[in-house]
């Protein structure tokens, strides 16, 4: 049945054995063997053959193609609707999670700013001749230096992110 279907579909497309062979990157004799039932294409070649002939592998193999009924279409559309609702819920949950992470980041930045402002760089009065205090003071000063410069950018970016996640879709 495969050999007859290949020949019938090839002829209906107006292709010669040579033209089909060129499209499939095989020799003409290979197509001839398929059509005469002397050999069959392997599974990967069957897929390529079906694509070149604008048909399905099932049709090439002679399996009846069942047209979907309206009941099948209704069931399929209901399943797709359920999947779409699940995806929408997942998307909303993801947006809410991102929003709360950004709000938390803003809160942490504000708390650290308040803590640093209330400390008023007290570590600058330490005795830096003591190596342990020197290291701790340097670390605190480096943290404060970087934080004061980077935190406003991160804070504003987080605020914009929160506003964007509240935007109506």
TrEMBL record:
The chain crosses the membrane at residues 100-126, 146-166. The keyword Lipid metabolism does not apply. GO terms for molecular function: DNA binding. Keywords: DNA-binding, Membrane, Transmembrane, Transmembrane helix. Pfam families: HTH_3. Residues 6-60 form the HTH cro/C1-type domain. Signal peptide: none annotated. PANTHER family: TRACRIPTIONAL REGULATORY PROTEIN-RELATED-RELATED, TRANSCRIPTIONAL REGULATOR. This is Transcriptional regulator.
């Amino acid at each position: 049945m495969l050999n007859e279907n290949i020949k019938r579909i090839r002829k209906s497309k107006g292709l010669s054995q040579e033209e089909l062979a060129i499209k499939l990157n095989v020799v003409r004799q290979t197509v001839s063997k398929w059509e005469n039932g002397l050999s069959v294409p392997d599974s990967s070649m069957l897929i390529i053959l079906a694509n070149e002939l604008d048909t399905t592998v099932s049709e090439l193999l002679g399996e009846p193609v069942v047209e979907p009924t309206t009941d099948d279409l209704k069931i399929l559309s209901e399943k797709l609707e359920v999947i779409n609702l699940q995806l929408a819920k997942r998307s909303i949950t993801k947006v809410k999670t991102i929003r709360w992470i950004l709000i938390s980041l803003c809160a942490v930045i504000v708390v650290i700013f308040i803590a640093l402002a209330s400390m008023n760089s007290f570590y600058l009065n330490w005795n830096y001749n003591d190596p342990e205090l020197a290291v701790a003071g340097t670390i605190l000063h480096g943290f404060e230096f970087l934080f004061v410069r980077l935190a406003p950018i991160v804070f504003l970016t987080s605020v914009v992110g929160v506003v964007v996640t509240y935007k109506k879709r």
